[in-house]
C-alpha cells in the first residue's frame, strides 16, 4: 500500500529533473536542510510563536514529533562550542553505503535578541568530504517578519534552493516561498500559505503550490491544499486535504499526563487507492532523562527508539533505535552516541 509516512516526513524540495508525478507527488514545500540550533537562547523546531498558530506546513508537527525517526548502523556526534555565538559539529555514520560517512557542521547565532528563546540571524552549514554542502540562513527582522534561505550544493553546483518570507501575528500567518528558480530552463515553483485563527481553538488555512517545469508531465500545474486544526486543553486534531486529488491527511495528538503522549495519523489517497494508518506514543522519564518513542503502521512496519541523556560528568546522550517490517521479516538496529 505504499511507503509509510508515519515518521516525521517534512517534504524536501525536489531538484530540477525530478520525474515524479506532479499531481500526486508531495507538493514542493521544503523544510530546513539542517536541524535548527539547540541550546539556551536559540529557537528550535518544537518552539512555536506566542500565538501558537501553525502554518499549513507545520499543521501535523505536534503528532509527528512523538514518532521515532528510524535509523540503522552507528552514529557518533560531537558538538563543540567555540563561543557564545558559534558551535561546531562533527558526525560520523557507519551503516549502509549511502548513510555512511563523515560530516562537518557549523552554527552561528547572531546578536539580535527578540526574546529569551529567539536570537537572530542564524546561519547553519554542513559539509561532506565528497563536496556536498547544505546551508541555511534564517533571520527575523522583528516579531512579525521572518526570512529563510536554504541551499543544497553537490560538487560545486547548486542542486536545490529556496527563499521564504513569513509574516506572523496573533490572528493570521502569511507565507510565500520561491523554490528552485532557473532562468535558463524557465522553471520555478511558488508556494502561497495562509493560516487564520477563527476562534481560540480553531484555525483554518490554505496553501497553493504552483510549479513550472519542462521535465514534468505538465508544463504548468498547481496543487491546492486546505486544512484546519482544533486545539483543546489536552488534545489536538488536524485535517488537511487536496480536494482535486481526493487525498486526505489527518492527525490526532493527546497528552495524557506530563510523561505520556499518544498520537495517530491517517493518510488517504482515493486516486491511488491507498490508506495508511499510524499509531505511536512517547513516554518521558524526566528525572532520569529518558525518552521512549514507538510506532506501528497499517503496513506492519514498526519502529522504537530509546534515548537517555546524561549531564555528568560530561553531558551526552545515548540512543538505540529498532525498526523493521513484520511481513517481510526485515529488521534493523541503530545505535547513536552524542556529546552535547
List the helices and strands and how they pair.
Blueprint: H1 61-64, E1 73-81, E2 86-94, E3 101-115, E4 118-127, E5 133-140, E6 145-154, E7 157-168, E8 172-182, E9 187-197, E10 202-212, E11 220-231, E12 235-242, E13 247-255, E14 260-269, E15 274-285, E16 290-297, E17 301-310, E18 316-325, E19 330-339
Parallel strand pairs: 1-19
Antiparallel strand pairs: 1-2, 2-3, 3-4, 4-5, 5-6, 6-7, 7-8, 8-9, 9-10, 10-11, 11-12, 12-13, 13-14, 14-15, 15-16, 16-17, 17-18, 18-19
Structure explained in plain terms:
With 340 residues, the protein is mostly beta strands. The chain has a single domain, classed as Porin, CATH 2.40.160. The protein contains one helix and 19 strands. It has a 19-stranded mixed beta barrel. A hairpin with a 4-residue loop joins strand 12 and strand 13.
For the structure shown, list the relevant keywords:
mainly beta, Porin, 19-stranded mixed β-barrel, 1 helix, 19 strands, 1% helix, disordered N terminus
Amino acid at each position: 500500500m505504499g511507503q509509510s509516512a508515519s515518521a516525521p516526513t517534512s517534504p524536501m524540495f525536489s531538484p530540477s529533473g525530478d520525474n515524479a508525478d506532479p499531481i500526486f507527488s508531495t507538493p514542493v514545500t521544503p523544510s530546513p536542510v539542517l536541524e535548527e540550533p539547540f541550546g539556551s537562547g536559540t529557537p528550535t523546531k518544537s518552539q512555536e510563536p506566542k500565538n501558537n498558530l501553525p502554518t499549513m506546513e507545520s499543521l501535523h508537527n505536534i503528532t509527528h514529533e512523538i514518532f521515532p525517526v528510524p535509523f540503522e548502523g552507528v552514529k557518533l556526534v560531537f558538538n563543540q562550542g567555540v563561543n557564545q555565538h558559534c558551535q561546531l559539529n562533527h558526525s560520523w555514520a557507519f551503516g549502509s553505503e549511502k548513510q555512511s560517512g563523515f560530516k562537518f557542521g557549523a552554527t552561528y547565532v547572531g546578536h539580535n535578541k527578540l526574546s529569551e528563546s529567539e536570537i537572530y540571524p542564524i546561519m547553519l552549514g554542513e559539509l561532506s568530504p565528497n563536496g556536498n554542502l547544505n546551508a541555511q540562513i534564517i533571520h527575523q527582522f522583528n516579531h512579525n517578519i521572518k526570512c529563510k534561505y536554504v541551499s543544497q550544493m553537490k560538487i560545486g553546483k547548486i542542486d536545490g534552493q529556496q527563499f521564504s518570507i513569513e509574516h506572523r501575528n496573533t490572528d493570521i500567518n502569511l507565507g510565500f516561498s520561491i523554490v528552485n528558480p532557473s532562468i535558463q530552463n524557465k522553471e520555478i515553483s511558488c508556494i502561497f500559505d495562509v493560516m487564520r485563527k477563527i476562534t481560540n481553538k480553531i484555525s483554518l488555512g490554505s496553501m497553493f503550490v504552483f510549479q513550472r517545469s519542462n521535465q514534468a508531465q505538465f508544463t504548468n500545474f498547481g496543487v491546492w491544499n486546505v486544512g484546519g486544526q482544533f486545539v483543546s486543553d489536552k488534545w489536538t486534531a488536524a485535517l488537511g486535504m487536496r480536494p482535486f486529488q481526493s487525498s486526505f491527511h489527518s492527525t490526532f495528538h493527546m497528552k495524557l499526563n506530563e510523561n505520556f503522549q499518544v498520537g495517530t495519523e491517517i493518510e488517504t489517497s482515493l486516486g491511488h487507492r491507498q490508506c495508511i494508518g499510524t499509531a505511536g506514543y512517547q513516554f518521558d522519564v524526566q528525572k532520569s532523562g529518558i525518552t521512549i518513542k514507538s510506532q506501528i503502521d497499517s503496513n506492519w512496519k514498526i519502529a522504537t527508539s530509546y534515548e537517555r541523556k546524561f549531564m555528568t560528568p560530561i553531558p551526552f546522550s545515548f540512543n538505540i533505535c529498532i525498526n523493521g517490517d513484520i511481513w517481510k521479516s526485515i529488521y534493523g538496529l541503530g545505535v547513536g552516541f552524542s556529546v552535547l
